[in-house]
Amino acid sequence: MQADLDNAGIYKQDEIDSYAAVRFKSMAAYAAGEQAQHKEIYAATSAPTERFNDQVNQQRAAIQSAEAAFEVAKSQGNEAGMKQANATRTAHAEVLQQLLDFKSGLTRFGSLYTYIAQTIDLGDPDLEAFASFARLLAKRLHGVPPEQVDVSALVLTGFDVKPEDMPGGEEPAKEEAVILKPVGPGGGGQPELPVYLRQVIARLNSIFGEATPLTDKVALVNHLFDIVREDANTVAQIKNNPRDVAMNGNIKGSVQSALVRALGSHTDLVTQVLKNDKQALNSLVDLLYEMVKDGQNIDRAELEA
Fold it and tell me: Which residues form a coiled coil (predicted)?
């Protein structure tokens, strides 16, 4: 798993080494009863964070450019141009997905290491440092602000809790003992999805039904989001007016136009919304209104993490 993360090219070995050095200083500070170097340990992941974000932005821009080229070729009846634009978009979409998979992989690696370290003394400080690096980098790529990062969780690892650590040196009663559950497939052991993510999934299911894979639904909605944002008038109406005013503006027409543009790559879902279900269209308009208002698409990697 670490080899796959290494091959993504987001971080460099010297950056991991620098992080490990800062982490060691923080461990020493904690041992001395002092505050860890929060800013230093956070800054040690700045370069890979910027590298990842730059690559994501480049791929998304390339996807939008390919979609625009597709529309131009389509308006000209240029079949070869349409195929080329579609192939270009597909290639960049695959690279983007690899980046998002990398982000999810960091989270899975950190969780898996934590699970294993609870049961086995690995005795590998380099691996422990990398696991800490992966956990912090994952938090940064998911947009967790510095003040919400618990530095102690990053530096205080690998410490055994022995019976003599309990008050009076007694072991806890068996019925109170914590049972360590095995990690399931795909890096399990993750906490339950936050409420807002469960709400997003419920809304997608109400619009498209539960039979369609979640990834397909997210891909379509994010595609529509990108298209709707190209309409400056619609975005301005949403950003500068109350909801009831904006909902009576261009948003519904923009969503319908976006659905038509997305028909070629999401035929079944788009057809379902346009032809079969008026309520689904209204719910989709509501969802896209909120996404444009917030300026944020649905993070597929976060749903899969």
Answer: 49-76
**Domain for residue 74, yes or no?**
yes
User: Per the structure, how many domains does the chain have?
Assistant: 2
Same domain assignment for residues 147 and 206:
no
Q: Is residue 145 part of a domain?
A: yes
Domain span at residue 227 reads 195-304
Asked whether residue 147 is domain-assigned, the answer is: yes
Residue 171 lies in a domain: no
For the whole model, what pTM was predicted? 0.50
Q: What is the DSSP string of the chain?
A: -HHHHHHT-SS-HHHHHHHHHHHHHHHHHHHTT----HHHHHHTTHHHHHHHHHHHHHHHHHHHHHHHHHHHHHHTT-HHHHHHHHHHHHHHHHHHHHHHHHHHHHHHHHHHHHHHHHH-----HHHHHHHHHHHHHHHHHTT--GGG--HHHHHS-S----GGGSGGGPPPPGGGPPPPPPP-TTT--PPPPPHHHHHHHHHHHHHH-SSS-HHHHHHHHHHHHHHHTT-HHHHHHHHHS-HHHHHTTTHHHHHHHHHHHTTTTSHHHHHIIIII-HHHHHHHHHHHHHHHHHT----HHHHH-
